[in-house]
Automatic annotation (TrEMBL):
Record carries keyword Hydrolase: yes
InterPro entries recorded: Metallo-B-lactamas, RibonucZ/Hydroxyglut_hydro
GO molecular function: hydrolase activity
Record's keyword terms, sorted: Hydrolase
Domain of life from the UniProt record: Bacteria
Protein's organism: Oecophyllibacter saccharovorans
PANTHER family in the cross-refs: HYDROLASE C777.06C-RELATED, HYDROLASE C777.06C-RELATED-RELATED
Entry protein name: MBL fold metallo-hydrolase
Pfam families attached to this UniProt entry: Lactamase_B_2 (PF12706)
């Protein structure tokens, strides 16, 4: 299995809009992140999971077009959503280009509450497909449970609930790989489902405690419970400088960067 980190930033990305308008200075607000370290330049969080030539896109944020182009990914075969926040769904219109490549509606998987949010915001994309040109995105909608087993092409796995502030998001596990973005609390059954995973990509927005996102001490607590061989931090905000994290994180823990690839061997 191969996993590509399309983006590993928070809802505003790094840098965020603002900062100096001096053309001789780096644009945007960087916080503690070194603007001259390319791995601090983060688009909104998303990944592609690939197995046996089948590609599953996880979330379609507002940077989707540039992410797919940057990673030379001309197509995906299905799309699954972790939750309905804008930084994870706002690029849904870009899927029209994927429809044109695969020449059919794209399988779209989400829980019922996320499907309702998508249909409210992108109602035109969820009208029945009647063939012809893809002048809009088109989907083969497949509801998934809030917790339990799922199958997507050759990928057999499970989804589990995560507390994300006032809402729930979905984590997912496929074999020895798991993905948990936008998570501040993990219920005991979800932690149990994660045990034994080898590679875990998990959201860690900042060093200090946060209401709706994982923070460094909390994520390291989860690590002690789950015991992954490799823990990769994603959904990182402007307080998470790449070089500082590489220098100070424990062995087996590392920050992601846009374009990072992970190879996960089968057990």
């Amino acid at each position: 299995m191969k996993v590509t980190i399309l983006g590993c930033g928070g809802s505003a990305g790094v840098p965020s809009i603002g900062g100096s308008e001096d053309p001789d200075q780096p644009a945007g607000k960087w916080g503690a992140c070194d603007p001259y370290e390319i791995r601090n330049r983060r688009t909104r969080s998303s990944i592609v999971i690939e197995q046996a030539g089948f590609r599953l896109l996880v979330d379609s944020g507002p940077d989707l077009r540039q992410q797919l182009l940057a990673n030379h990914l001309a197509r995906v075969d299905a799309l699954i959503f972790t939750h309905g926040h804008s930084d994870h769904i706002a690029g849904l219109d870009e899927v029209r280009a994927i429809n044109r490549v695969i020449r059919k509606p794209l399988p779209l998987l989400a829980t019922e509450d996320v499907l309702q949010e998508l249909q409210a915001r992108f109602s035109y994309a969820f009208r029945p497909w009647e063939g012809g040109q893809f002048y809009r995105a088109a989907f083969d909608v497949q509801p998934i449970p809030e917790a339990g087993n799922i199958q997507i092409g050759p990928l057999h796995g499970s989804v589990f609930p995560q507390t994300h502030g006032l809402i729930e998001s979905r984590g997912m596990r496929f074999g020895d790989f798991a993905y948990s973005t936008d998570v501040a609390e993990l219920p005991a059954p979800s932690l149990e489902m994660l045990k034994g995973v080898k590679t875990w990509v998990v959201g860690c927005f900042q060093p200090e405690q946060h209401f709706s996102h994982g923070w460094l001490a909390r994520v390291l607590e989860w690590r002690e419970i789950v015991q992954p061989q490799r823990l990769v931090l994603t959904h990182m905000g402007p307080a998470m400088d790449y070089a500082t994290l590489k220098r100070t994180l424990p062995t087996g823990v590392e920050p992601a960067f846009d374009g990072m690839t992970l190879e996960i061997s089968s057990s």
